[in-house]
Model the fold of this input.
Amino acid sequence: MENVLRPIIVLGGSVVLTLLLGWVVDLLLRRIDDRHPETPLWGLLRRCRLPLQVVLLTALLRSSYSQSQWQPIEEHEAAIGHVLTLVLIAAGAWLVIRIASAAVESTYARYASTTRDPARLRRVRTQVTLIMRIVTAVVAVVAVAAMLLTFPGMERLGASLLASAGIIGIVAGVAAQSTLGNLFAGFQIAFGDMVRIGDTVVVDGEWGVVEEVTLTFLAVRTWDERRITMPVSYFTGKPFENWSRGGAQMTGTVFFHLDHSTPVGLMRAKLHEILTECPAWDGRDWSLAVTGTTPSTMEVRAVVTAKDADDVWTARCTVREQMITWLCEEHPYALPRIATSAAALPPGPKIPLVPDQPDQPAEDPSPRTGRG
Done:
């Protein structure tokens, strides 16, 4: 009977104790969070409950599994102990990453609640994202190294690797030159404030918003929901447009190619009327002027302003659509036309042209010949 109860007590007691401790810790964090709602750290730490329970359960089993005196466990005691050690290291790394993530997100949330500058918030958000990726990578590497050192013979392998570290470092540096370049470019982007998450950029003729920044690549979401993934070294080695740099406010232009008889004054008044009714216009500035002429048309430029790139695009499309509709309905003569010279007339009296009555043919005064 004792051979049955002992394993149940050891294993079941470890599980029950783990669940109890996890519930107590979660309850304490919940009460602290209710008392200090201005600090989001305590609420974020509640996400660490699962990895904490895994660490506690693995630690309890690692220290007590040999006391169960169960024959299957005694036969594979060394292997079970090794597996529990590996699980404990992995769970510990998971818990450390969750705690670090909670601390970083809490710091960013408190900073965001006190800062109203969207450009500064995007900069801090980009840096926080890359810092978390660095922390995750470092903790993962340390955890894997610790797990490898639990295997017999890895000490001698480590010593041999350290002895040849110089040669390996040179070979790895040459082989991973592109990867290392992207890695350092990622640091430069994060802390050099070149581009941030949420910035509106134009790269290779594509307009989009920076959606994700990592240590090696950068993802841009285009206006048609496509994702362009580019190495971060592109942004440190080639010029690109950042429309959010120095402020989100934008100025847009709309060009019209019209006939020389276009009433520019009426167009200017119509532009102001359109912008007054356009929610995307921020009211900062507007203008309309003739910026060029050709033998057949003249170029009219309308200038509009908006608070960001999305609104300036909407304002430009609204002005273009409504202005063309107004010209077609009220001033169709202002639309561009192709003028050709009149055809040469035959000898004899000239045929009078009646442009105002195109549906009534002009009377031919020339004498008619033939039977009639």
Remarks:
- The radius of gyration is 37 Å.
- Strands lie at 200-203, 206-213, 217-222, 227-231, 241-242, 250-258, 286-293, 298-306.
